[in-house]
Hints:
alpha/beta, nucleotide-binding (chains A, B), EC 6.2.1.30 (chains A, B), phosphopantetheine (chains A, B), ANL_N_sf (chains A, B), binds zinc ion, 10 helices, GMP Synthetase, Chain A, domain 3, Phenylacetate-coenzyme A ligase (chains A, B), homodimer, Rossmann fold
Amino acid sequence: MFFDPLEGLARQDLENLQGVRLRHVVSQSANSPLYARIFEEHGLQADQVQGLDDLPRLPFTGKEDLRASYPGGMLCRPMEEMVRLHASSGTTGAATVVFHTANDIQTWADLVARCFHMVGVRPHDVFQNMSGYGLFTGGLGIHYGAERLGCLTIPAGAGNSKRQIKLLRDFRVTVIHIIPSYALHLATVFDSLGVNLEDLHLKTALIGAEPHSEQIRKRIEELYGVKAYNSYGLSEMNGPGVAFECPEQNGMHIWEDAFLAEIIDPVTLEPVPEGEVGELVLTTLTREGMPILRYRTRDLTRFIPGECPCGRTHRRIDRILGRSDDMIIIKGVNIFPMQVERVLMAIPEVGQNYLIVLERQGYLDQFKVQVEVKSEFFVEDMRVLKKLQDRITGMLRDELLITPKVELVEARSLPCSDGKAQRVCDLRGQ
Amino acid sequence: MFFDPLEGLARQDLENLQGVRLRHVVSQSANSPLYARIFEEHGLQADQVQGLDDLPRLPFTGKEDLRASYPGGMLCRPMEEMVRLHASSGTTGAATVVFHTANDIQTWADLVARCFHMVGVRPHDVFQNMSGYGLFTGGLGIHYGAERLGCLTIPAGAGNSKRQIKLLRDFRVTVIHIIPSYALHLATVFDSLGVNLEDLHLKTALIGAEPHSEQIRKRIEELYGVKAYNSYGLSEMNGPGVAFECPEQNGMHIWEDAFLAEIIDPVTLEPVPEGEVGELVLTTLTREGMPILRYRTRDLTRFIPGECPCGRTHRRIDRILGRSDDMIIIKGVNIFPMQVERVLMAIPEVGQNYLIVLERQGYLDQFKVQVEVKSEFFVEDMRVLKKLQDRITGMLRDELLITPKVELVEARSLPCSDGKAQRVCDLRGQ
Ligand SMILES: [Zn+2]
Ligand SMILES: [Zn+2]
């Protein structure tokens, strides 16, 4: 039924396994220059971590630690045992680099294969991978998983829409891996080639690598006539294969035998109550070459409470709701631009752009939101505008739990550079 | 000593193995729609091919057969057994597609690993692959070979020169796979980054995917402070891993346990005498999913006679000398533009461009070569030019065995479109 029996392991057994693996990974980590130093700074002995209960003893690891240990300061085995390296792009500054042993590559492929199998992909499927290959983990990571499962894999890579569609049609592709925004674009090319959905044999889309809403998923499902499943991963934790939706399409099972997951308040660094939104923190439990302890992903999500009807015991996380590095703290309240956006974009009168302005008046912080109003609604009648303003204020207050000052402005009047809107303007100084 | 003991197999044993494998692959091929039809057209039964002596009974396969059998007409096993597909680029018309089973991928990786090992690459090496990944075979084909050997592989992919150099330096890369023309370009970027050869740890370059001269190899060796080894492959025969230079740097050993090689006269289709130039014809001996029989590669080369001091028994082919599709037949003589080019480019007075013009006068074909002369040599004195003209005519006659009519023209006077010179102008009509 499951690709790996571990997927259905009783919760207590899973946690016991995590405890054993955590102890092992902490003792291994101590062999890396970075963790040797960090443990020493914290007066921590690796053998003080005997199980899950000792997790809070471990310091967090951040992207800055990965950068500072560039190029090889996080390896806990000799470089000769490494067989693969992936790196974040970036030509300036130190890139984030992750090394893998042969076993790590194997384990990663197994985790990705588990994701494919979970949503019904089988060896007879024809799979087209539209992620870029190379140092980016989405290409090779997904590729090895599909190969592990035994699909016919078409390593199409990114771009070249006409060829993508030709491959989809000619090889009767049944499963695709595609970035959501590219999926929306690619669908617009179908018409120009005279290709219809009926010419294709698609049934499943694996979508990941960028956050997207439920609406986007629905749209992709309609455009391609498929079931679309959300994928979560980050290169620091291999890449794809960290968490993946099951057929219930209600949250992504995080593979807890391989990744120990916590969700913390990004300010207090304490765990949030079960079900509440916070920052996802991950510890690798099986990686040999370069384990990472309590890595602050900066991705905001929540554990979905309760058991999943699919029978898998691994907890589910919600789709990524934003980044903790975007977080605004005002009057002691944490606010994310994504929350403001979600409220505003549901209001028909609101135009394309908005701007969050943070000001200080005396000792008091002010939270102001400038909102573009579509020209057809930007009328002379001040009473109409006042009503709209009150409505927006109320909706934002319900979401954010503080009352913003809302200003309505004309369409296309807010700053916008390089086509990319500025979302937050912090005038509070330091 | 060898990665695979088969590399040193006694010649007679190797040929016996080829005979057994040929018989097997022919019987398997008969299961594919294409070969079932071809065998029937030729009145051939698969069991009529019992060994190497029966090779001439088999018809040749051409690129046109691959195109005509698109997308799956050359498979001799069910599509479900295929795990990989590679395709030539081309968005219009039918692409050339090759399918692989899991065993085929494994065998391919073994062959590439053999190439790496032959030139001294070992598991402790750090290998940067600068070939494009995806449907192009140079990326994944080389990648799997390096992984099979156990190197630390950096899947850099093509382009992004600054990042390539940063990776070379920061990860102390010892081995690179690079296209010769890109190697020359990349070296020009070193200076602008303030990187010297002394900052690098390179020792070996694997160069392939495009024909190049001995001079280019020497230049790459100087620029990078490495030994550079020539690689030969084509996507129809997997990709890289068909033939590769040994440390002698005198011809590429063709892995004859996996590929049965012939060199034929492209006109008579008969074998050329040992050591003479002709078209390379290859038969896959180990491929399960999509065997190809007597494939006309259109690549021109020769077997290098004699045994190689390295002890490998697999015959060597010379670097690729041109393409048989470029071949000109005039007065019953086969001429390749590359031959004309080699002669002309060794003459100091000759400029950048030349043009071969084929004309018919009455019933007689005329072979004319227009040659640009560098402006400093294009003097008023007709006697000087006449002497140059006679010298060029004599040198071309010595190479081509027919006497061309040579016309000297001014520098930059010959047609040149899109920066790419036109080399042959055939005015003979049909
Ligand atoms: Zn589930
Ligand atoms: Zn040799």
